[in-house]
Amino acid sequence: MRTEDESLLRRAVEIAAAAVEGGDAPYGSLLAAEDGTILVEAHNTVRRDDDITAHPELKLARWAAQHLDAATAARTTMYTSCQPCEMCTGALARSGLGRVVYALASAQLAELAPGSGWPVVPQEGPNLFDEARVPIDHHQRVLAERRG
């Protein structure tokens, strides 16, 4: 972590603390421009919104995808009070953000809050390859036609 990151990471922890005071879960995040200007802040509202996806990292990834062009997004840094979960990590990758700096690692969170981890859902596959590839092949043809 760079020295200039410390104050922004502390702000993410402050957002998490304020979330608890408001009755929400203790997670906070912010997205900063390359110069350190805070673009947007969010905290976890899973309980309040009755929405399992209302993680602050996912909210900020959505915001970035809607409001920033790819080059600008790539120059941003997300500061977050805890390491993003797998759901949020996927959204962060898709949104094109440049970097994430977090305070607590997932393993540290598990030690501080036993039972806070996620169960593993069994997955079975791949299955029905020949059938499943039809819409993918069609999509690829449509994209090729649009390009050429």
Automatic annotation (TrEMBL):
Pfam families recorded: dCMP_cyt_deam_1
| CDD domains in UniProt | nucleoside_deaminase
- The UniProt record lists the CMP/dCMP-type deaminase domain at 3-120
Q: SUPFAM superfamilies under this entry? A: Cytidine deaminase-like
This protein's superkingdom?
Bacteria
Supply the name of the protein: Nucleoside deaminase
